[in-house]
User: Which sequence fits this backbone?
């Protein structure tokens, strides 16, 4: 790796594409003759308006976002969406949630503060190692939406097909898989993603929302919590996270140049296969998720004991592979291999683990 950088397997904030970081470096002191860094720029300036407009347009191009969807850049991370979604979308005060891991569980907890939550399916029985069958859910007619976390960052579980919502609006937390593969936006009412997992720096969420879901009868909701506020003001009701928008915009352009999301998916599948093939052939390490629901992005794995897990984590760190410790709620190890993790990073880690296994038989 250039610059003495490490292969960073963090679940987030995580690696960004090196060419993007280099471009940001080159523009740091004087953005394209403006005489200032983007961090120092008024969000009301012409030069900044162009940055945010291009970021939105490039994302629309990448995901083929239909015209009747708004793209919003909002602060408060993905976590604020756990509350904003029920506050804005619960008209009848009732929604269906699917519980597949830590992040959907957190969303459920917050939604319960706002209205009635029906957990129509859960994989808690097997410690969130699969996605339950959602082809024929019991969904009340007056449920306002069906909520999923499409890639559970901590448990490493991903959906291989969307739930049958029986005509209800689908809401998806795509934080840790956003832009990892093509996405048919019109299957959803609302998609959101905290950008620090698979796109850019922390502190911002992208919300893609169908226009008819943006309500104007929520005067009593704090103004910042209404999607309408952000939609009506081009994500600049107040000062947005200018820096994150700028960096994300660069990543959008980078992905377009790479060949778009289909190409990104090909790269990600190829990369993840290297790791899963290793896990499946190893006698020391095993993946924790049912193969059908394995994430392309977050790969939790374990040895036979917590003690050995800890030893392996320490050994990887000493060898220059960072952040492989599993989440404290799950234990074991976890390799997050987002869009920006090069295949060589995965190959190098696999080589190291294989050797470790060989030496510690
Ligand atoms: C990280 C993460 C969140 C929370 O993101 P913040 O930006 O830290 O609030 C929510 N959902 C998923 C799937 C995540 O991976």
Assistant:
């Amino acid at each position: 790796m250039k610059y003495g950088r490490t292969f960073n397997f963090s679940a987030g904030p995580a690696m960004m594409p090196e060419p993007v970081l280099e471009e940001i470096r080159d523009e740091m002191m004087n953005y394209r003759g403006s005489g200032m860094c983007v961090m120092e720029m008024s969000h009301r300036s012409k030069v900044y308006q162009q940055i945010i407009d291009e970021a939105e347009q490039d994302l629309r191009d990448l995901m083929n976002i239909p015209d009747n969807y708004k793209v919003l850049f909002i602060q408060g991370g993905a976590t604020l969406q756990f509350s904003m979604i029920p506050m804005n979308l619960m008209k009848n005060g009732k929604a269906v949630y699917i519980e597949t891991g830590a992040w959907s569980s957190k969303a459920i907890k917050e939604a319960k503060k706002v209205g009635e939550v029906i957990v129509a399916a859960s994989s808690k029985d097997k410690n969130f190692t699969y996605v339950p069958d959602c082809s024929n859910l019991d969904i009340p007619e007056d449920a306002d939406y069906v909520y999923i976390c499409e890639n559970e960052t901590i448990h490493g579980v991903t959906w291989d097909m969307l739930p049958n919502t029986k005509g209800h609006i689908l809401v998806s937390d795509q934080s840790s898989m956003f832009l990892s593969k093509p996405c048919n936006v019109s299957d959803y009412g609302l998609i959101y993603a905290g950008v620090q997992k698979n796109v850019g720096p922390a502190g911002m969420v992208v919300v893609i929302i169908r226009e008819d879901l943006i309500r104007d009868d929520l005067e009593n909701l704090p103004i910042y919590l209404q999607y309408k506020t952000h939609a009506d003001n081009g994500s600049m009701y107040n000062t947005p996270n200018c820096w994150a928008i700028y960096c994300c915009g660069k990543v959008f352009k980078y992905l377009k140049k790479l060949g778009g999301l289909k190409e990104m998916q090909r790269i990600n599948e190829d990369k993840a296969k290297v790791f899963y093939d290793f896990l499946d052939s190893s006698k020391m390490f095993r993946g924790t998720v049912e193969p059908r629901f394995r994430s392309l992005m977050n790969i939790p794995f374990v040895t036979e004991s917590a003690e050995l897990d800890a030893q392996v984590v320490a050994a990887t760190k000493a060898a220059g592979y960072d952040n492989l410790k599993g989440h404290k709620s799950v234990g074991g190890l976890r390799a997050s291999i987002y869009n920006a993790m090069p295949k060589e990073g995965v190959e190098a880690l696999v080589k190291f683990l294989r050797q470790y296994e060989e030496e510690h038989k």
The radius of gyration is 21 Å. The pocket of pyridoxal-5'-phosphate is lined by residues 12, 77-79, 103, 149, 153, 173, 175-176, 194, 197 (CB under 6 Å).
